[in-house]
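User: Hi! I'm working on a homework problem where we have to compare a predicted structure to a textbook description. Could you give me the structure for the chain below?
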Amino acid sequence: MKTILILVGKTQNKHFIAGINDYTERIAHYMPFEIRTIPELKNTKSLTEAQQKEKEGQLILQELQSSDTVVLLDEHGKEFRSIELADWLQHKQNTARRLVFVIGGPYGFSPEIYARANDKISLSRLTFSHQMVRLIFVEQLYRACTIIKGEPYHHE
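Assistant: Happy to help. Predicted structure tokens:
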């Protein structure tokens, strides 16, 4: 199973970039994994939040294949403990050809993206910056991989 993380806009903070790159390399030892970045929209001052979400949504949809299992990182999604996420991921590895996670822009997702999604996951009830969510998510994905393999990274 190939796993893809779609991001809207580049990661800015050099410390987050270093951490994301580190975990991306680690994840690659367990599964094919790549990050795809959709460029930030230009001249957004003239756009409403809804228009921004719609334009970002169109760009996200262009990255998807009809057979993809699409999972949104969304504040209204299901929350997991790390072991539960590993179980969920292992099930997806057995059922999905391409598992695509999406971290949206600052205003969230368009209705079209919600309609296309197969699932939603929340990393926490706390609010994190979109930049920080990227690092937290790839760390949790790596942690899930090590749990599945029974490796000692995660401590109960």
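For your comparison, note the following. The helical segments are 14-27, 49-63, 82-95, 111-116, 130-148. The radius of gyration is 15 Å. Good luck with the assignment!
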